[in-house]
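About this split. The held-out portion is used to measure sequence recovery: a designer receives only the structure tokens and must propose an amino acid at every position. Recovery is the fraction of positions where the proposal matches the reference. Here is one held-out target exactly as it appears in the evaluation file.
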């Protein structure tokens, strides 16, 4: 089950007989340990409290009611397909701040988002507790935050020789199906897997290849000989 926390300036608590504006945080992350950890950390931060929703539909419904909030999202564990879809959400809800909180994000993916809007912040799960708290506070204050590790990756000189890409057998098979024009739903039905499982493989493939869309992934599959060009051009 997927959960979210969101930050929303709409509730009040009373402390020492004074009204204090509170904000609620929503987390999009399937990892129980991450949800529990963030829930505990946020509970210790003054003026913040958590609220949960179960899926993307609830997230969109919440944003329609009040888009002035911060959404903490593990992109790799949620059914948002690519950077383009995130940018559409950003255009649809311009006052929403997005804190991308994942173990790994491709450099090109991050560059596209931060170049497109100041509403995107980036935080890796390896970051210290101090940096996690700082990132949340920055987003609440409508400021962008990019963690130190990601900044080092973004500023590092690009290697001329591309490292060998190691896809698993499953990822290779799914990449071939993607290149042949199959949708995530069709691949899931073919493999007797869930949509979420195939979508996670899809994101991992894109990350390993350093691509951001199906067209780029297909070009790689053709170059690598995973798909016969004659078979591809029959489509």
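Reference sequence for scoring:
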């Amino acid at each position: 089950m997927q959960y979210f926390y969101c930050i929303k300036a709409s509730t009040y608590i009373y402390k020492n007989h004074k009204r204090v504006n509170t904000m609620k945080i929503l987390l999009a992350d399937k990892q129980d340990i991450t949800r529990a950890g963030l829930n505990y950390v946020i509970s210790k931060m003054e003026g913040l409290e958590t609220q949960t929703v179960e899926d993307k539909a609830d997230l969109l419904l919440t944003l329609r009611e009040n888009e002035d909030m911060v959404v903490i999202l593990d992109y790799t564990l949620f059914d948002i397909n690519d950077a383009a879809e995130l940018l559409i959400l950003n255009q649809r809800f311009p006052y929403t701040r997005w804190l991308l909180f994942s173990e790994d994000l491709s450099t090109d993916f991050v560059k596209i988002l931060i170049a497109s809007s100041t509403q995107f912040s980036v935080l890796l799960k390896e970051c210290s507790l101090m940096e996690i708290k700082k990132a949340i506070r920055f987003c609440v204050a409508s400021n962008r935050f990019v963690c130190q590790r990601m900044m080092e990756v973004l500023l590092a000189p690009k290697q001329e020789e591309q490292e060998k890409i190691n896809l698993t057998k499953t990822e290779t098979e799914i990449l071939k199906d993607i290149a042949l024009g199959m949708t995530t739903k069709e691949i899931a039905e073919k493999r007797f897997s869930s949509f979420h499982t195939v979508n996670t493989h899809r994101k991992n493939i894109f990350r390993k290849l350093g691509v951001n869309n199906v067209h780029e992934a297909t070009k790689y599959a053709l170059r690598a000989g995973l798909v016969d060009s004659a078979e591809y051009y029959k489509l």
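Annotator remark: Residues 1-19 have pLDDT under 50 and may be disordered.
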